[in-house]
Amino acid sequence: xxxxxxxxxxxxxxxxxxxxxxxxxxxxxxxxxxxxxxxxxxxxxxxxxxxxxxxxxxxxxxxxxxxxxxxxxxxxxxxxxxxxxxxxxxxxxxxxxxxxxxxxxxxxxxxxxxxxxxxxxxxxxxxxxxxxxxxxxxxxxxxxxxxxxxxxxxxxxx
Length: 158
Hints:
Blueprint: H1 3-25, H2 29-32, E1 36-44, E2 49-52, H3 54-69, E3 73-88, E4 91-104, E5 117-129, E6 132-146
Parallel strand pairs: 1-6
Antiparallel strand pairs: 1-2, 3-4, 4-5, 5-6
């Protein structure tokens, strides 16, 4: 594999990470499930939960989408330090640092006065499919920097 092929794989996998973050933040989390392979998994170590298959991931994100569209769930993922490791022409993995700002707040009341960031690590496994690059496994790992107020108790995040 030459340098240009490696750069293209890195770009496509990095784009998947950013697309995922944007979709789960901006009223379309259900669409994020389509970035996964049909049998892909979402491992939420911070919640002790593993979802397997696109349908299970969609179900989780449908709840979140309902909360976002009701204007009572606000969140933004800030993605940084994306490192892609190419295994071969059809497989890659990554590790990224995520700062999540999330609040249960009725936006009718104006700007949310208190948002406590939570820092995570995302570990992803990617595979090239007939539809292009997809997420085979997305793992969310908590880091020790978590404010007690930021724990997920939302009905939209369960």
